What we know:
By secondary structure, the protein is an all-beta fold. It has no helices and ten strands. It is elongated and about 60 Å long.
Amino acid sequence: MVRRVMLGNLPNGYGLRVSKPGYDVIDTEAGNLLIDSTSAGFLRQRSNYTLSFSSASTQYIAHNLGVIPIVLWSLTDNTTGESQRLNTSLTIWASSSQIAVSTRISTSQTVYLQLLTEII
């Protein structure tokens, strides 16, 4: 039986590796890996931001990554304490130098952002 999944301390750093069926994740060539988080072309977390809104407005964050990042977000309504992943009152724009976050609701909200980019 071969080892197909390895998570944690890998031979070349910490990460995740998954091999093709029949190939050992530790001893195989790179071409036999389905996922190798330590290789180029994998997404990496670049930065986290927390924004607080007390009224409908837009806030800008300069990230200067030089590429348009993937933006993961969550929103917490500070009045009810509820966390939301789907909210039509929130709009996020991303460019290679900044993120704009706009809300149309006038209640107190906290928005958590995580920016990801591909390793080149």
